TrEMBL record, chain A:
It is found in: Cell inner membrane. It is a multi-pass membrane protein. Belongs to the MlaE permease family. GO terms for molecular function: phospholipid transporter activity. This is Intermembrane phospholipid transport system permease protein MlaE. Pfam families: MlaE. Keywords: Cell inner membrane, Cell membrane, Membrane, Transmembrane, Transmembrane helix, Transport. It comes from Parashewanella curva. The chain crosses the membrane at residues 49-73, 145-169, 200-219, 240-259. The keyword Secreted does not apply.
From TrEMBL, chain B:
The keyword ATP-binding applies. Residues 9-245 form the ABC transporter domain. It comes from Parashewanella curva. This is Phospholipid ABC transporter ATP-binding protein MlaF. GO terms for molecular function: ATP binding; ATP hydrolysis activity. Keywords: ATP-binding, Nucleotide-binding, Transport. PROSITE patterns: ABC_TRANSPORTER_1, ABC_TRANSPORTER_2.
Automatic annotation (TrEMBL), chain C:
Residues 39-117 form the Mce/MlaD domain. This is Outer membrane lipid asymmetry maintenance protein MlaD. GO terms for molecular function: phospholipid binding; phospholipid transporter activity. It comes from Parashewanella curva. NCBIfam families: OM_asym_MlaD (TIGR04430).
Amino acid sequence: MRIVERITALGHNAIEFISGFGRAGIMLWNAIVNVPRFRKGTPLLIKQLYVVGVQSFVIITISGLFIGMVLALQGYNILSDFGTSESLGPMVALSLLRELGPVVTALLFAGRAGSALTAEIGLMKSTEQLSSLEMMAVDPLRQVIAPRFWAGVISMPLLAMIFSAVGIYGGHIVGVEWKGIDAGSFWSILQSQVEWHQDILNSLIKSVVFAVVVTWIALYRGYQVIPNPEGISRATTKTVVQASLAVLALDFLLTALMFG
Amino acid sequence: MDNQTPNLVEVRNMSFNRGSRAIFKDLNLTIPKGKVTAIMGPSGIGKTTLLKLISGQLTPDSGQVLFDGHDIHKVSRKELFNLRQRMSMLFQSGALFTDINVADNVAFALREHSNLPESIINTIVAMKLEAVGLRGAGKLMPNELSGGMQRRAALARAIALEPELVMYDEPFAGQDPIAMGVLVKLIKELSESLNLTSVVVSHDVVEVLSIADYVYVVADKKVIAEGTPQQLKQSDNLQLQQFMGGEPDGPVPFHFPAPDYKKELMGENR
Amino acid sequence: MLTRKIEFLVGCFLLTGLAAFLTLVFNVANIKIDSGESTYALTARFTNVGGLKVRSPVKVGGVTVGRVSDIILDPKQLDAVVTIQIDKRYDQFPETSSLSILTSGLLGEQFLGLTPGFDDGDTSMLKSGDKIENTHSALVLEDLIGQFLYSLGSKDK
């Protein structure tokens, strides 16, 4: 009997998991397939770009600067042992572009903007604002979910680019200004090693994928929230945990695909 | 006269389950045009659920809900949205959009569904807010209003599109006597002056009986009594009398169904 | 309602993001030698390519003029066929030019050094699809040490 119950529980969980995926997919599909309405949709999008993008700008810039500086400092200590401290440039730039830029941005974004999205939508649901949209014959998916989704998908790649650029500048500060690597060789080796397609385009692709996943999870968690304070706090936690894990797992997958 | 009024909403043999728990079983209701219909019953019997079923936010397991002859759960989403423009709902919490001010809240549906110029929208908003006595509060944010004023603002929003049907979900719950009096007066005035069909869901017996033209009492998954307020007061239905009189125990038990108390204390059920 | 301040900040944000992207593209990745249009392909055979990789640079006098785009093994002759993409701006290499696999520094990356051949006036220039005949394979450290020890041993006798 025990075994039968276990198997039943497993099947139940699997079905829940898959149907959850299905519901999330249907939600996203309904939200973004609707024809965008430029006159009414644009102000909503701009507002969400402000909430999601502009308000994450400071944390992303500061983190990028410090991570670039730390990378340069650690890298310099190791590389100078091998007499190749000039390779600091490409080391910092490639680490940032290929991995840290997209990944750290996505993690910070999940914590800063993703949790806020979940809480906001959860609150709108528990105060019946979503129902009242529905009653006013306005599709909440279109009014609430779609602009937030697009704002996330537009903002995060831009934030990742800002992160990488600021981080490389941070590497420059430590490597050139502080440790005294020749500025010319720092930049020329960096430039000869970084490539448009392999590094920058892939970085962009990664951050777009992460943006979709993080925003999607955040919106779905908010939309499916059990409408009470406990439900909202749980959903917020779930957003951060699931989005972070999804980003890290997908990062491995994408890295394997892109860089073999 | 009464018999000639066609019904705006008809609920026919509707059953609804939440999970494995039955909420309604073969429920029948009719809501006549231009009248105030009240639905009363003890808390927890799914009155809000009933409104959500009527407005098509939830789908019943069997039976149908007709709004002006259209089966609201069979029509396409687009048609449903068209029908929804003819009805509106006052939510228990008011459900004002917290990120825009009161005037924009009232203007929201107008901006969504009409192409009226901004100056006309502003005029309409001022008129609706005046009707609920909040014209001076248009520039305030919803969280700067008291609970009663929020509900009035929500009422202004609910009638912005001049709907045919307004559903009030517990409009009196948690209001002080003055706010309650204001709301009672408003609902009555609005339904008379705009010729609205109103559905009031509530358990505040006195207030409801003072405004309703016809009352349904729902308990135990079905309608247990119906009639004009006059008829209900004279009814000798025990369950009804318990509810109207507010007696703690009676046909509706005070106790949640449980195994025998003595036996449980003696540990016999374990 | 939207204020002008929010719109302004969103505009600034979008511009900053775009600026960061363009900085990365043009300043960090030296985007000059890559897009398919502006390069031409050459092939060369090596008996040993050592640590040469796809995307290793091709240099003339230390200046990068192209990159390795493909390395395959010829299944019949069993030697490596390397395809390189050279920037169209540099199209004045005589047919007699030679390619060698060099190493930047003692432990550095391997790259292809293109040594321009002598142009006696009627030597034709390399063009797309041509093959460079004159190649020098990678120096493999183990082979060098082996030869060195061998020659030491033979001297002692």
